[in-house]
Amino acid sequence: MAAKSKSKPKPVQKPTPAPRQKEKAAPAPLTETFQPGFWNNHWIPALLMLALAYALYYIGLNYGYVLDDEMVYVKNEYVQKGFAGLRQIFSADSFMGYFKEPRFLLEGGRYRPLSLATFAMEVEIFGPNKPAAGHFFNMLLYGITGMLLYRVLLGLFPLKEDGRLAGHNLGEARWYFSLPFIASVLFMLHPLHVECVANIKGRDEILALLGGLGALWATLKYFDTKGWGWLVLSAVSLLLGMFAKENTLTFVAVIPLTVWFFTKVSLERVLLATLPLLAAAFLFILARYEALGYLLNPGKIADNDIMNNPFYGMTGSEELATIFLTLGWYLKLLFVPHPLTIDYYPYHVPKVGWSDWRAILGLVLHVGMGLWALWNIRKRSVPAYAILFYLLTLSIVSNLFVSVGTFMNERFLYMPSLGFCIVAGWFFTRKMPEWLKEKPDSAYPLGMIVVGLVAGLYAYRVITRVPDWRSGFTLNRAAVQVSEGSARSHCFYATGLYEEKYVPEKDPAERKRLVEEMEYHIKRSLEINPNYGAALIMKFNVAAARFDIDHQLDKFFHVAEDVVEKIPYNTTFRKNLAAYLKYLDGSNADKYTAFCHRIGYEFFWKKKNDSTTALFFLEFALNRQYEDIRTLEDIAEISEAIGNTAQAAEFRARANAQK
Q: Whole-model pTM?
């Protein structure tokens, strides 16, 4: 029997490497994304987000209250009541506890009770005037936001069991070089967020995004677990976010977009899961209407004040051009967050028309981004999703649909900046390795170097920016250096110089130097906005300080008359003027009584037909020169005109007796 021939062994074939998944491939189903054991596997990056919040902002624990903290916290009557004020906080405009009466300064009013409620709880637990508590909880909530953001992004861009990002092997390291981690770290480090964290009032922005992210996470958990309780939680979280700030309303669109983009759930089920979100939005709008009595414009807004309505006096074309200039400015700040300022008031942001290239560029960029995103969203392009997230969350503060009372603000980018961070994470962990596909070993180290450089620059800018928030004075000093074209920055800085430097200063030479510096900034403020009430008040105060130095009464009275003509019924100015008239010594009685005649008789009586105010100022002249004939005749004339014949006869007789 012939021996069986041995067959040659077949050569071992190397397994064909799986083709790299393209960006437009459909995302993984949710059953693979929200895996259990998040804390077991990701406690290091999660806690790192919390650590970043305190590492960057811990110095703020020593800082005080600044900006609108006075209106929403320190001098807000409802907040200072503690738990007893919660009912009033949720049933009124957020500034009612400060003004004590309705003040329709901004379109739509301000209904943000949740942050005020947390302030009231702090007052109840820690007592009043404890800014350290406010700063501590802002940092804590910011850190929690970073943790939740990482958790949500980890579900949307899942990692493999070995810690690498699913479907993306090229040059991609473990969790510390994944899209969820890089995007979350950049969000925590972004310098545009300093205003929200370092300013206690900025808690409304933090809570608003927390509510939106919580609603998104709960909705995704519903599709992962089929548990209806998650839909209830999503509605509650969204409602709380809206009670913090109206911006969270945009998540009614963001959440279904996210579910559709990242899952294979049918459109019908996506829309069904949106119903609880719509119900939450309806409840918020109803509660807001019950508290304020209106939805948008109550018809009593001071539209002629450019500090509350910066677009006053502009044509429709100029307004739209200026808006798109600011939208382009926002994009610049996302990429290059420098210089930073709290002051984008008139006219640090200039009034422009469509002949300005910056307005045209802003329009082209935003229309182009929107069209490109809509065209590519069906391809499951991550940048397309991030752009739509950015545009949706920015829309409500863009001034395109409702006036926000200022041209722009850095805090308005707090929520939209998440879209930018997602694009940045995508670029560093996906696009850059794709460009380096011929050298995959270089993608990871190069990417880490670039990310580290960007993160380092962001962290440095945060660390150098936070000290500006030490006090109102340091904040306004920093603002005036950047916002040279803003009437507000010059006025607020002069006010800070007056209150914190000039008043306590004893050295005559230093007081003189401070007066000269204040005069420059007030003059500059009124050059920009001649009718700016706060600057006119400071103009009078600085003139009084100048009089204390040179004792030139004519110059002082000239400034006082100028301010009287522009803001005759401003209560703060009237109070200051009356106090200073009482303060003046007994010299120069003729100039004193002549001034009282001019503002009392000639201005308030002859021009304004205001007998009460006219008599108020004429009485100062009587106190200074009791039987001044002209003053007696002025009072007699006014008294007769208002029907007080007895008083008219008395003062006419006293005048005749002096002749």
A: 0.88
